[in-house]
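SUBJECT: protein chain
CONTENTS: sequence, C-alpha cells:
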Amino acid sequence: MEEFEWPPSTSTLQANNFTSEGISEFCTNWMKAIKSAVVVQDRPRHIRPSNLIIWTVGLTCVTVISLCAAVGIVFVKKLSKRAYNHFITVLVAVGVGSLITSSTLHLLPQGLGVVDGENYEFIVVMMFCIFGIYIFFFCDKFIKITLESKKMNEIELLNNVGTHISMEAGVVSIRSTDALINENDNNFKSDAFPISGPIKGYKKRTSLLKQNSDVDSTIRSSLDMSRQAHGICVHDHEITFNQTKDSAIKTVAWMIVFGDGLHNFIDGVSIGAAFSESLLSGLSVSVSVFAEEFPHELGDVAILLNAGMNQKQALFYNLLSTITCFVGFIIGVVLGSVESLLRYIFGFSGGMFLYIALSCMMPEMKSTMDEALENGYVDAFLVLSLQTTGLALGTFSMFFFARYGDLIKFS
C-alpha cells in the first residue's frame, strides 16, 4: 500500500466560506485521497528467484522427500519397536506443527497478499490462532490423563481389598482341597488315562495353533506399529491376510501407487509454486512436506514388507508413487510464473495442509495417546511430552522462516 499525503482541503473549504466551488474542490480532493488509500498493489513481495535456483534447489528438495522410502527401510530394520514408536510420535507431531504453521503463516497470507516484509502483525494474530488449537488439544489430553489415573487408582484399591478378602477365605478352602487335588493327580498319573493317541495329537495341534497365533500376533503388532505413521487420510491402506501372497502384494502396490501418487502430485505442485514465489517460501513448504511425508513413507514400507514383499519390491513400488511429485513440481513452477494464478495455488495448498494436519494427523495423535493410557498414566505423560516436543519443533521452525526469513541472505 503506497504512502500519500492528505490534501489541505479543509483550509480551502474555510477560505471559500462554504461556496459551491469550495465544496466541489473539497469533495474531489478527498475522493482522490480515498482511492489512493484503498488501492491494493499486486506487486510481488519478494524478488523471484532465478530459474537456475528454482530448478536446482526445488528438485533437490523433491528428491530428498522422495528418498524417504529408502531411509524408511533402514529405520524399519534397525530400530526396535519402542524406539520406532517414540520416533514416529515425535515426527508426526513435527508434521502437525509444521503443516499448521506453514499454512497459517506462509501459504494463506501469501494468497491474501498480506506479506510485505515490514508488517508482521498478521504473524502475531496467526500465532494466537495456532496456540488456541494447541491449548484445547492439551487440555483434552490432561483431562483424559487425570481421569484415567483416578480410575486406575480406584481399580487398584478395589483389587487390593478383594485380594485381601480372598486370601483370608482361601486359607480354609486350601486345606480342605489338598486331599482332593492329590487324589486327582494320582488318577491322572495312573494307567486308566494313558496320554497317547488322540490326546497326544490334540496336544500337538494345540501347540501348532499356539505357534501360528504367535506369528499372527507378531504381524498384527508390527502393523499396529506402522499404523501411527500411516494415519493420514489420503494414505490409508487396509491390509487383509489372504492365502495367495501375490494377490495381497498386488492390491497393496496399486493402492500405494494411486493413493500416494495423487497426494505426492499435490505436494509437488505446492512446492513448485512456493519456489516460484521465493526461495524461503519454497524451503518452508518443503520442510513441512518432508515432516509430513517421512512418517507415512515409513508406514508404507512397513506395510509392504509385512504384506510379503522383499526390500527391492517395497522400494520399487514406493518410489513409483513419488514420480508424480516431480510431475507436480514441474506444473507448479509453470503455474507459479503466472501471478494471477499463484495466490489461488497458495490458498488451495494452505487448505490442504490444514485438512491433513487437523483432520488426519491430529486424530492419529489422539489415538496414540489413548493407546498409551491403556498402559498407564506414566506412558501417557511420556507420549504427551514427545508430542509437545514435536509440535514445538514444527511450529517454531516455521515461525522462524516467517518472522526472520527476510534477514537470511543467499549469495
